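[Meeting: bench + compute handoff]

Bench side (C.D.) handed over the final construct sequence. Compute side (W.E.) agreed to return the predicted structure before the next meeting so the bench team could plan truncations. Sequence as handed over:
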Amino acid sequence: MSAAHPPRRLRIRLLAGALGLLIPTAAIVIATLPSAASTVGPAVAAAAPAPLAAARTMESLGRGVVAVRSSTTGVLVSWRLLGLDPAGVGFNVYRSTGGAAEVRLNAAVLTGGTNFTDTTANLTQTNTYRVRPVLNGAEQAPSGAFTLKANNAVEPVVRVPLRAGGAVKFVWTGDLDGDGEYDYVLDRQTSPQSIEAYRSNGQFLWSVDMGPNSIDQDNIEGGSATIDVGHNDGVTVYDLDSDGRAEVALRIADGVRFGNGTTFGNADDNRQFIAILDGLTGAPRATAAVPADYLADGPMMARLGVGHLDGVNPSLVAYMKNRVGNGGFNLMFTAWRFTGSAVTMQWKFLRGNQDLPDGHNTRIIDVDGDGRDEIAEIGFVLNGDGRLRYSLGPQGVVHGDRFHIAKIDPNRAGLQGYGVQQDNPSGLREYYYDAGTGQIIWKHIESGVGDVGRGMAGDIDPRTPGYEVWSFSGLYHAATNRLAEPNRTLAPWPQLGLWWDGDTMMELLNAGKIEKWNPAAPTTSGSVPRLVSTWNFGAVTAAQSGPTFSGDILGDWREEVVYTNAAFNELIIFTTNVPSGTRLYTLAHNPAYRNAMTLKGYMQSHHVDYFLGANMTAPPRPNISYTPR
């Protein structure tokens, strides 16, 4: 162990001393953590830093081939570059029309962006596309296929049929059947609530009835089985035992009926449990009781997510909260490991009366670059072993709605954070900080007390290196703390970011509009140039005027957004119809980004752990290994 990397416990104490923080231990219960695997990870490109001794296990994804009509005569075909693909891999694109033999479409092997525009298809017939990787001149096994229907509409959309049912707030993705492509799990906001699972082609798999304890859907003090209200979810999807098929994790209570027809029973309606469900059947594979520390104050609402807390194996992380009378809130974090047959709590963390501000989102990300994920709230961070890393409370941070952690400044070591505040008595509106240490770099204070309900971070102005950050107090170059646009009324609305078009700058998703802010000709937030209006394709917005899901789940590295139609019997998945020469491995193989795909709360943009923006350098190869498939 080098002097630059002292043991974790010593680093915590050093950090605490530097920031004047008290690191409590009485509020933490630690179970034995599984040891890291001793195998060495795959080779890393020369530009990458030296890998850790072991690689984190991530999904073995397929190519995610997708095709949409980009014009009356053109079809954009797009596919994944995988995280561990060799640097020199190229691709050939094949098309079968009307079931005839496949023909190769590209004259020379494609070694640039992983997309191709087909202008020769007979679009009155079905057209099926697949790609074959080419390595050292030799074609490899073909990808899975994507079929574009005959006379398909000209639209940047993939449509997935659903059963009839109630309104949908959230969609989660994971490879439920082990074919390397993402399937879908969604909620139904009925009374009682339910969740449903579908294969990627829309084949229904199973439904879980959340039972009578999901009827009370108050977003602060709901029923013990209530999911997906307010900033709570209680559901996530991931391959938790690394066997090549994703599980569904649920916070449950008495009366939940699983996908195999069995009903969970417990005499105490307030007692809650963690359940791990088989992704193909919805049957329970393991359950474990949630700690009862705060049971006297009633059931706890929950947010669930996934991170690799030991740097190798996935853990389920549960944020759980309930109200103390009519006053403050109890807050508990727990981490869980699923081995395939049992789910076991690794540790729990109780906030108690410590100055640890939380908000409406959780992020699980490696903030210190040691390969192990930490758990971040808007005002504090826990290490992967459940011990407090730092609090922003002593620096004046209180509760807030939105925060981001990313490589905001490409010229500064480590990751940076940006957060906004709700009713901070000091007048603090927003702040920018070192995500590894918690040191605030700058803050903006205004007169009076204000609720800053939105805050965004992304590279939307190429004139200065790094991301811009903005709320309703102006658009700033984060690294310089200078206004990118002096006229504050010409900043875009701070909703969600989205990588959509052909460059590496971030586009914006705002109330069903995919927009591109132009720093050379800025406009008011209501008139930012629009690329796509989702309602023109039948989509309806879900919670907080947003989609049910956003993330890189199809095609190349650019992102999809998932909506439903008004009848809630179809997923409408928006996927780019714009060609790009940019070649990046799929964002779903980036550890920080894939963790973010498992989290909901008040939906926020996902971020990778490298700088993705104007004039970026090639990202390092991720230190990952694949699950079996």
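W.E. noted at the follow-up: Residues 1-51 have pLDDT under 50 and may be disordered. C.D. will use this when planning the next construct.
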